[in-house]
Amino acid sequence: MEAGPAKAYILEHESNASIRALNRLMKEKAEVYWAAKPITVKNKVYAAGTMIIHATPGIETKLQAIARDTSVNFIASTDRLNVQAYKLILPRIAMYKSYVASIDEGWTRLIFENYEFSFTNILDKDIRAGSLRSKYDVIIIPGELTETQIIEGHRAGTVPPEFAGGIGDAGVQNLREFVNEGGTLVTLDKASEFAAKQFALPVKNALEGVRPQDFYVPGSLLKVVLDTDNPIAYGMPREGAAFVQQNAAFEVTGNAKSVGTYPLTNPLMSGWILGEEKIYGKAAVVDVPVGRGRIILLSIRPQFRAQVRGTYKLLFNSLYYGPATMTIYEGGGSGNN
Q1: Which of 3.40.50.880, 1.10.1200.10, 3.40.50.11740, 3.30.70.890 is the CATH number of 93-321?
Q2: Which has the closest alpha carbon to 320: 300, 298, 296?
Q3: How far apart are CA 257 and CA 276, in angstroms?
C-alpha cells in the first residue's frame, strides 16, 4: 500500500479477495463507495465499480491490516475525486432455508462464511410472519428449489407437522411487500423462475415447455456477455464463463435489464449442449426494479459447489447493490445527488 497524505484510497474490484476486504471495511465502519464511472488516479484509469475508501483519521492502519490479511492492494489518492458513485452500507442479509433439502443453500452458506458476509438464515415461518423489510435489506432464495417447493414445501402427513408446508401464499405476499418497501430479492438457479412468475416480472422464460430432446444442458460452461456498467457485473470481464444446468433463459421487456446475455452464436465453452440456438441472445442475469426495491435473477449457478469462482462476484455484488444509494463522491466528503 502506498503511503502519504491521502484524500481517499482506491481498491480494484476484479478479485474475489476485494469483496472479503470490503466486508472487513464495512464492519470497521469505513465510508466506502463504488465509482459509477471510470476514474483516473495517478494517470491510471480505473473501471466503474472501483472501490473508493474515504480517508478518515486512523483509516491507514486499518487498511494495512486488511491488505495484509486479504492480499489486496490499496492505492492512495492525493487528488480530490469528484465522481458519481454508489454509497455502500453493510447489508442486513437473510438467506431462505427451506425444509425441502437444498444443497445449494449449504454451499452458499460456506462461501458467505469464507468471504466474511454476515447473514441470518430464515425459515418458512419467518417469511410467513412478515415485517421482513424492518429486519433485512436483502433476501436470498438459493438454488435447487422449484416454485412449488418454495410455496408448498413438504406435503402434510409426509413429515412432522412443524416441517410441512412452504412459505405459502402469505409468504409470497410478504416477499412482494418486502421488495415494494425497498428490499432486494436475489434468486439463484430455479428460484429465478419462481420470482419471474410470482412477481409477474416483465421477463419470459424462452425454455418453458421446451422438451429435453430439443434443449438440454446438463451442467456446462457457457459464454455470457456482461454489462459491466451495471453494479451486478462490476469487476467482471466483458465476457465470462457461467456454469449452467437447465436454467431459464429469459426474454426481457419493460424496465427489466439484461446484465448477462448469451451471445448470438454457440455459447458452449466446456461440456455439451443440445439446441443451443434456443438461448441465443437470451438473458441469464436480469436486474428488475420493483416498487422501491429490486429483484435480481441469477439464472445460472453462480457459486455452484463453491467451485465456479469466476462468477462469485455476480452474487456478491448483488448483495451490496440493492441497498446502496447513488450520490456524488467528492474527495473532501460526500453529498447526495
Answers
A1: 3.40.50.880
A2: 296
A3: 22
Q: Has residue 292 got a pLDDT over 70?
A: yes
CA 244-318-245 angle, to 5 degrees, is 10
User: What tens digit of pLDDT does each residue of 206-240 get?
Assistant: 999 899 999 999 999 999 999 999 999 999 999 99
All 3 cell numbers of residue 267? 455459447
Taking Cα atoms as reference points, which of 114, 94, 110, 96 lies closest to residue 19? 114
127 or 105: which carries more pLDDT confidence?
127
Ordered by start, the domain boundaries in the chain are: 8-88+325-336, 93-321
pLDDT tens-digit readout, 45-60: 999 999 999 999 889 9
Structure-block grid coordinates of residue 7: 484524500
Q: How far apart are the first and last CA of the chain?
A: 31
